[in-house]
């Protein structure tokens, strides 16, 4: 009995030792950027490192900071990389520049599987169902009708061999623009964090405020990264991010109405009291590039101001170490205060942005058109990817790329036509944008008439089309806020001095109406159909069963009364008079109806 | 169905129709017209109701109020109007929208007038629009609030109120968190042309005459639109305008929504300045008259095929839209701009609730009041009865041809069952050949009604058998008439371009050039029966198989009327009321009086006189100074209206002109020809 506590002590010690040795690390960061026209972006990023290989089956047996729920899914389906985004609203590139993490409206999922000898379609189908349960989203709708295999647009984001990263067999991409993101998605997502939403930066997640915003995006990214410079060992990186854009100029009331002032209190309705004890560091970065100090005053003053040159443009950040600030009892509240109200003027658009829309009217045919604006004075090669559901039948011959009316020849084209009810059409184009130009990609399509069971309950709402994806290497870091490929935390990205940045942007998702039957009147339809069938059946039956016989006009036809008389007389002398019977039969054959009448009469008599 | 399969009973029906032909025709016509007009009587129509539950009209509390004083805005706007006599202060509007913090754009467009109007100059224009991005969606859907901006020199009532209201609403709306559809605030220039340019630009549609410029900012598919024509304050009542291009109507739910919200705010709402008959007197004679007046006015507006406001152009794009017009009375007007704003706020909150496009309620209806409607199911029956008169009168032709037949034929009639069966095959074969020869019209007739075709077949067959020494038959005899009326139709349709081209070198006003050109064409067509008359040595009487021609004409007419009724019931009804009796009556006659009265009647319903009458009715409300003044003004309205309908054809794709050229005119011409046929 006395040995028992000792055993526990040993066990606890071993556990602690294992924890230290396993080299897990967790970072929590918040990036705040004041955007134009009264908007403020808050981007939370939680990064977990796990120093072990994702392809090693032994890895997913002992967990510490990495969420087990997710780890099990990753190991079961042999996932190499997983990128999931759940977004509400549309990122406004013209006004807000580039987001820290680009995501289309709705849900987007792309996965690279580890090379193995399996059917990847099957694996994908199982994976989306598992993830669907994990994230409380309808990812199970990502079936073959919604899944594509892009060839160039989505390369592995983590380390991968060249052979692997050029083989798109291992990857699947799908998006559900219709999916609505709400608190039910935030809760399971938050549960994957080491501190959940109990302590640390994640306590700021006030669902009421978060979902009353102009833009809201949850992201989850798993990828293998290098452990060190030499890259002899890999580790698993899990990056969870939440971006939210508030329009403070319009939500501020009273004295500050019209001011872009923001604080933790006004944005999230609460202060920050602590940091996650598991975290290696916990920091807030305020991007003051756009609104430098005289315009926006920060209080308290940042611990450190970092100025970096990224892709040729200067970025200034104020950095706060939360471990030092959150000791106070009343909590930490960060203010950004403006001297004047928001002046609405022209906003400098980012170097590259795009808009996409449906063209034409009517329910028979239409088109999709995407306008890409290049504001740089250099050529830019872009990859344009479009996924169109099968019920919009794209004419490949109608796909046009034009810059001010001059046709642009794409370097590469990858087009997979759709198959009805099984596969969407997929288009990837690689082409060059001229300096300071507006390029338009347009295509024409037919709208299919679905089977009546294929319509959703809100058939007249319309059908969604995925966002197009544009990928490129930008030669400038202007308005760019995303992390570089080789960085894992926002802190890492502050030392980034690369001259080119990778940009992936999503255009608007589209709503297209298809020809829809009038479901609201099934009763009328049934009535009409029944009437038509009855009328058609009656007359057709009559025409097909009637016998047409030639009769001699000389021979007068017996009128019904006479017939009846002969009938009676026949009944009376049925046995006696055979000859008259035969004669009667002859006349009866002249008219089928009469014959039938007779039969009925006979039967009546018999009964 | 015994009718189809049993030759005996079919024959009986045909006989009956033939026998009581005239009475039946007259009866159908009278019953149809009376029934149709009676539909305005409340017990015969239905009360409107909401089909779309998602609208939830008037449930929310409206909180709209102006941040700034609207009067100041109005006076500022008026100042701006004064500054530029000819241009509209769109830059002022643009700046105001930007101050609110919305994405604001200017759309440039150019208008190239057709028919060498304004000497082929290209007229520029600009629309200002502003998009409020909904927070709760990804710009996948939008609703539009539009106001036409009018310069000081415009004849139409000013819309300051609408513009100021729109600015106030934009500011108020932009602070509300609940929007799930983008709201587009649109200020259009040049009335309908500006609207068309904007819609074309939005949907990426390019036409030859209105060329929209690029639109940098766009949103998703537009679900609904409200166009405001609101003068500044002191509004007495509102008019809801529904009639769109080519007689298209918005979904009844949208109309109901507007009516319901106006009622909620105690604002009186009317149709064409006509009050609804009050509940207590709705079933009295006075109440019926009131409803009938409203219904006729609504039908009149729909029949014109012209949009009654800027909203009318939305309908083609499957966007439900209405115009809300405020009528200002300086002293008695009680409705303020704030109340109007709250009505519109309520409308947009309801539209915001919509999950699907408007699809539940009626698209085809007639309104005898703002709260009562006559659905397509109700009005099609009396209309069908009117048009059935045309088919019934086909029996008349049978009768007339029979009369001239031999007596022997009659005696055989009952006993030739076998012969008939054999003959049938022959005749149908023969007829297939002949019908192919004739026109699209007669081949349509085959599918149109078997009854008529049969009687027609028989008619021709009998004529083949009993060759008359004097009476011409067959398709060949009527071909010249048919062809020439087709040529006239084509001339009429293509005329405007040629005439306008001619007017320029003659230094004529385009309007006059067109008008007199058409008058000449019409006069020429009046004389055409003389031209196609058979020029034989002994006589130049006009002889042809008039019965066949009339059959074709009547079938064609009924087809046109029925298909038109599905698109624009009002126009179909008015045309049917005018054409059906005359077409039934017209036949060659030896009686001079009857001939001349027929010609007179035909002249009365000639396209020219129809248009002239329509022009006079449309200006009847105004003071014209006596009957002569009225006639004169009617004449000038006619020539102006003709030009406008032509311009509408080019700008907006109105098919009124095409309808008159290709359906009404040739149909009338063949009837005119029949009236010149010599009776034998």
Report on the structure:
The complex is a heterodimer of chains A (607) and B (680). Chain A has 607 residues and is an alpha+beta fold. Chain A folds into four domains: 24-350 and 476-511, no CATH class; 352-475, Mu homology domain, subdomain B (Immunoglobulin-like, Sandwich); 516-541; 547-606, no CATH class. Chain A has 15 helices and 27 strands. The radius of gyration of chain A is 36 Å and the shape is elongated. Chain B folds into two domains: 54-373, Zn peptidases (Aminopeptidase), CATH 3.40.630.10; 471-676, no CATH class. Chain B is 56% helix and 11% strand. Chain B has a nine-stranded mixed sheet with strand order 6-2-3-5-4-7-10-8-9, with helices on both faces. In chain B, strands 1-12-11 form a three-stranded antiparallel sheet. The interface between A and B is large, with 54 and 42 residues.
Multimerization state: heterodimer
Percent of residues in beta strands of chain A: 25-35%
Total beta strands of chain B: 12
How can the largest sheet of chain B be summarized? 9 strands, mixed
Strand order of the largest sheet of chain B: 6-2-3-5-4-7-10-8-9
* Number of spatially distinct domains of chain B: 2
Low-confidence stretches of chain A: 10-21, 579-607
